[in-house]
Amino acid sequence: MSRHPVLRLGLGLLLLVLALGAVLLARGTADAASAFRAEQAVWQRGLKPTPPGSPGLSRRAGESVLGIRARADVLRTYQAYRAGLADVIEGTAYPQTRARFEAIKELERLRASLRGSDRAGADVVLGVILADAASSAGPQRQAQLRNALGVFARAVREDPASATAKLDLEVLLQATAPRAKSQVSPSGSPSRRRQRNENPRNPTAPARAEGEGF
Fold first, then answer.
1. Which residues pair with 97 in a beta bridge?
2. CB 118 within 8 A of CB 210
3. What does pTM read for this prediction?
4. Please, are residues 185 and 113 in contact by the beta-carbon 8 Å criterion?
5. What share of the chain is helix, strand, coil (3-state, %, to 5)?
């Protein structure tokens, strides 16, 4: 007879734990969705972001529930990169930033665990960072541009349907292609000449739905 109260107590505690877990998961899911939208807005507007904080266990669980964990990781990596661009590595010959070094390392780590459009999305961001690095790479500029081209091409191979990867690859190819005099017509507009010299735009902020590409 004494077992029944103990069983009821144990069942009650179990239900309480499950209820608390459900509440925490619901809160984490709401926080994940809100933070993701806010980070997307900063990204899309080209604003300088603040360094991302740790998402915490509940928010990470919420990202998994929403299916945006991979994209949130890539977004936070790019956010940290842009927030830390002024952090120059001391003793380097050219202004390579610590933020760039850390972002490249983190994106390479992330892409190893991703597949398909998610891996292609990580490569798009990596290519943008490498192309951006070329502007201050001195004698290493061409090598950095070749690296960026290789990464964009890799993104296209990973996800042939990615319009973003194709666009960035095309823009960078146009920017790095040698210009022959015969290709420049007197009527060529300044806007077209500028377009050939443009760096790839900032990568498009990740979409909420996993698997939709960048």
1. 88
2. yes
3. 0.69
4. no
5. 70, 0, 30
